[in-house]
Amino acid sequence: MRNFDLFFQLHFDSKEISDDELNSYTTENIKLLATTPRFASTTAALLTAHTSYFGAITDEATNAAIQKGQTQAMKDARDAFEATLSRHEGTIRGKFGVGSAEYLRFFPAGLSEYRESSLSTIDQKLTRLLTAFTDIGTKLDPAVVAEFTEAGTPTTPAKGVILVFQNVRASQLAAKAATTASKSPSATNRAALEVACQKALLTVALDALDRTPAERTELRRLFPQHLLENRAHATTATTTPVTPA
Predict the structure, then answer these.
(1) Residues 219-226: contacts with CB within 8 Å, 24+ apart?
(2) 38 and 73 in contact (C-beta within 8 Å)?
(3) Using one digit for the tens of pLDDT, what is the confidence trace for 41-98?
(4) Cα 15 to Cα 18, 41, 72, distances in angstroms
(5) What is the distance, to the nearest Å, from the Cα of residue 154 to the centroid of all Cα atoms in its chain?
(6) Closest CA to 51 of 173, 179, 170, 172
(7) Pair 239, 233: CB distance under 8 Å
(8) What is the DSSP letter of 229?
């Protein structure tokens, strides 16, 4: 029988993990997580916590990977949103009529308004569309409404495409803001970073449950655990390097 307590332990809260080791691990973990767009919000949260403690990451390879991951996550979320909206525009038109007040709540300037919106203007339109579904969505098929408003993740874009798009967009903006922060290490900030590392680990582990063995192996590689070995003590003959569980 496995020890369930392991899942409730904060594995990064250890005196054996130095600041340098935590910095190296987190920087590499962020870079690796960013290569998988469905973890965009997890990457952004970890980046924010890292920046709060260590300051902005200056490594070009890491920043390039983060940017690439955010760009792909944003593209995937927007494509899913636009495809779902296009598929159901006819449903909404057929239900209310193209010139009706209800239809105009969803499409005041037609379907093309969403396709042609820039990222700087799409946020307001997503909020407006979500409000329309909240106010008059009861007149539509619940399954249709769920595709736009039911809580979902980037791994299931057919559910909650508005929320997914908003969350990925918020994560992108949060990550950008994090790069302007300065280093202000404290016990509180270190604890916050340790928690963010643990959340990233558990989030990916949960995602891995329904994956194939090969996919789980690839997801495990997102976590460079070897960087947490206490090299300062590993040089002595009497001490074994510590690798957190």
Answers:
(1) 219/36, 221/32, 222/29, 222/32, 222/33, 222/36, 222/39, 223/29, 223/32, 224/25, 224/28, 224/29, 224/32, 225/25
(2) yes
(3) 899 899 989 988 988 888 888 888 888 888 888 888 899 999 999 999 999 999 999 9
(4) 7, 28, 37
(5) 8
(6) 179
(7) yes
(8) S
Report whether 133 contacts 56 (CB < 8 A): no
Residue 211: count of CB within 10 angstroms of its CB: 12
- How far apart, in whole angstroms, are the C-alpha atoms of residue 180 and residue 22? 20
pLDDT attached to residue 66? 83
140: DSSP letter? S
Provide the token pair at 68.
């690439």
Which pTM was predicted?
0.66
Question: What tokens were used for 215?
Answer: 């996919």
Q: Which residue has the tokens 């203007």?
A: 121
Crossing angle for the helix pair 187-208 and 213-220, to the nearest 10 degrees: 170
